[in-house]
Amino acid sequence: MIKEKEHIGELEELILLLIVMLKEEAYGLSIRRALKEHASRTVTIGAVHGTVNRLENKGFIESRFGGATESRGGRHKRIFTITGAGKSVLQKSKDVKVNLWQQIPELAITKL
Questions:
Q1: Do residues 86 and 61 touch, judged by C-beta distance below 8 A?
Q2: 39-76 burial code (b ≥16 CB/10 A, e <16)
Q3: What is the pTM assigned to this prediction?
Q4: d(Cα 44, Cα 51) in Å, to the nearest integer?
Q5: Sign of torsion over alpha carbons 105, 107, 111, 112
Q6: pLDDT tens across 13-70, in order?
Q7: Which CATH number is 8-107's, of 3.40.50.80, 3.10.129.10, 3.40.50.1000, 1.10.10.10?
Q8: 79-91, pLDDT tens digit by residue?
């Protein structure tokens, strides 16, 4: 059973998964692009920033600043990485969903 403080919403879960997938390229704009490409979700950059701030406050991700680039007008990228707690909450979320799918055999997807 997931504790209340360990609960994550769908957008939080998607962003955590994308941070793992994107590795060193996990920064605001790349996360936004990946949400559209891999999850067919169009969100504002503000929604991405709000979500990563919430995930960082919960201890599920950490951030650091990458080097400034001329193409970014001298601004630094804020790069995100998942923490052990973030990995744990992702696993718990997956386990809950798999358990629920297993309770509904008529909806289970069979592999060919």
A1: yes
A2: eeeebeeeebeebbebbbebebbebeeeeeeeeeeeee
A3: 0.84
A4: 11
A5: positive
A6: 999 999 999 999 999 999 999 999 999 999 999 999 999 999 999 999 999 998 766 6
A7: 1.10.10.10
A8: 999 999 999 999 9
